[in-house]
Amino acid sequence: MRFLRAWIAAVLLSVLGYLLFVVTGSDSGAVAYPPLRLFGELTQLLGIPKLFQLVHQVFGLGQGGKIFAFTGVSLLWLGGLTVLGGLWRGQIAGLIAFVLMLIFTPWYVALGYGIAFWFLLDAVNALLAPRSRVAVAGASTSNPSTPNPSTPNPSTTVRAGRTVTAPGQPVIGQPVTGQPDATRRTTTALLAAGGAAIAGGGLTALFRSGGETAPAAAVITPGGPLPFGVTPVSQWYYVSKNLEPFDPKVDGAKWRLKVSGMVRTPQSLTLADLKKFSPVTEERTLACISNPVGGPLLSNGVWQGFRLSELLKAAGVQGGAKYLIWEAADGYTESLPLGRALEDDVLLVHSLNGQPLNVKHGFPLRVLIPGRYGMKQPRWITGIKLSATDEPGYWVKRGWSKAAEVELLSRIDQPQEISPLMKAGEASFIRGIAFFGDQPITKVEVTVDGGKNWKTARLIAPRTKHAWTPWELPFTPTAGSYQVAVRAFSGSVAQKEAEADALPEGATGYHHFIVNVS
Ligand SMILES: Nc1nc2c(c(=O)[nH]1)N[C@H]1C(S)=C(S)[C@@H](COP(=O)(O)O)O[C@H]1N2
Ligand SMILES: [Mo]
User: Fold this and answer.
1) In Å, how far from its chain's centre is CA 129?
2) 392 with 403: CB under 8 angstroms?
3) How far is the centre of ligand 1, averaged over its atoms, from the C-alpha of 312 (Å)?
4) Which of 182-191, 304-313, 400-409, 469-478 has the lowest mean pLDDT?
5) Is the pLDDT of residue 140 over 60?
6) Alpha carbon of residue 11 to chain centroid
7) Atom 9 (ligand 1): residue with closest C-alpha?
8) Does residue 469 sit in helix, strand or coil?
9) Which of 241, 10, 245 is nearest to 114 (CA)?
């Protein structure tokens, strides 16, 4: 019972904290949500390459790892508070919670939650605890051989302002009937059920987004084919360090892009101010470093924005500056050597496929750097800091590549890897895309016999040098089993054949699978 009450208090604390977090705006770092902080700390641990690999080997790929991590965190958080509240009364439990939370939250958050837990626990105990000798005796008779050390001293359960004997309650000292107060029981049940419903509902909401979300650290199993042209926003791949409901919802009216650090004229720009830079529209492919060979974590879109170099010119970069540090509304950070940042292919974009960026994909402004994986390109940016020293980015600190330059890749989309369908004697094509960031694809080869023979595919010229290159090879199969694979070239650079996991530098190896034709 004590543990049930502690659990109720823990759930109430979590729900109230979450409401506070939402009301104060998830993009203000001032009021953090401790379970999320804990999640951040744990993913930092999971970013340790060996540990990451292990978790994914044990728990499978894709969404599994993230759900595992979040479930673990929830258990740790709710379980931890429940144990504290079950063993100690409010003041002590709150104090211990405060001290433990100092490990992963700022002191003022830890303090607030410590105090809140103290009061909530006392309140829940006062409301629901047995408050007469009879009830206490009842608790111990039901378990006579193991006196419960956490059962409060009967005298302390009688609280000021509460009547000890309510109508219908057994009189103190009377023999135990084993019948706890029905009202209290109902209240407990209702509160517990409500708490469970809220906790359950919350968790469901968190994962409603289904198989789409994955940390940069996640590996996803190959999915359906990619549309070869522009990826509709609704089908655009999505990866975030945040659980999707916690992605920052930036208020466009209040938003400012701050340029600070080693600049002559620090800037604070509104969305309207961005219009003064010359507009650039370009089709570009974006890929996640955790995309496995043949995986779905890459998309191709038409972006609209302006050149970072123009903004930096306006701010006037000082002599000693060597790095550009990105700041984002979700606390994500990344950095880029200044030399790369000044090249005129680095864009700040506010639109995708003719629409303003939506929340998921970075409203109001995100970074595009050709030749680098998505992790180098923050969304929801709020600041650009010029610095003499580098600051490793969010995923870099968690074991991922520092430069995150894209690997030369190619993939087969038709037939699909999952349930490949080809009919004997029917004239068809093997199709797919190849991509090498800012470098051109010059040749794509396809084998249908496990690599004994390679045929050159026809390339469909990409509309821009930063978009993927579609390719196709006519193929009229006869009945049988085919080991198909693809490999791409960029001038003298050949796609790596050696298979490597996505962590830490991005996956390599040929996309290959078996097609049975009948
Ligand atoms: N602020 C912020 N920017 C971010 C991330 C993030 O978690 N927070 N994730 C990065 C990663 S790992 C990738 S692959 C891309 C994904 O962008 P998309 O979901 O719009 O495709 O955003 C990048 N930018
Ligand atoms: Mo990513």
Assistant:
1) 40
2) no
3) 23
4) 182-191
5) no
6) 23
7) 240
8) strand
9) 10
Which residues are near ligand 1 (CB < 6 Å)? 216, 236-241, 286, 288, 328, 330, 332, 361-362, 374-375, 377-380
- Ligand 1, atom 10, residue with closest C-alpha: 375
Q: CA 513 to CA 221: how far, in whole Å?
A: 13
**Distance between CA atoms of 371 and 383, rounded to whole angstroms?**
22
220: tokens are 């996803």
Residue 511 pairs in a beta bridge with 486
Those residues whose C-beta lies under 8 Å from the C-beta of residue 240, and which sit 6 or more positions away, are 213, 215, 247, 330, 360
270: pLDDT strictly greater than 90: yes
Type of residue at 35: P
- Cα torsion angle, 119, 124, 127, 132, sign: negative
Three-state SS string over 187-223 comes to HHHHHHHHHHHHHHHHHHHHHCCHHHCCCCCCCCCCC
**Distance of alpha carbon 82 from alpha carbon 75, whole angstroms:** 10
Contact predicate 384/326, CB 8 Å? yes
Instruction: Say which amino acid occupies 217.
Output: A
Residue 509 tokens, joined: 């190896």
Taking only Cα atoms into account, the Rg of the chain, rounded to an integer number of angstroms, comes to: 29
In angstroms, rounded to a whole number, what is the distance separating the alpha carbons of residues 284 and 291? 17
Whether the per-residue pLDDT at 322 is higher than 70: the answer is yes
Of ligand 1's listed atoms, the one at least distance from the Cα of 286 is: 21
Which residue's alpha carbon is at the smallest distance from atom 11 of ligand 1?
375
Using DSSP bridges, classify how beta strands 381-387 and 257-261 pair: parallel, antiparallel or unpaired: parallel
Q: Could you tell me the domains of the chain?
A: 2-130+180-209 (no CATH), 233-398 (3.90.420.10), 409-517 (2.60.40.650)
- Reading the block at residue 455, the tokens are 């045929």
In angstroms, the CA 226 to CA 223 distance is 9
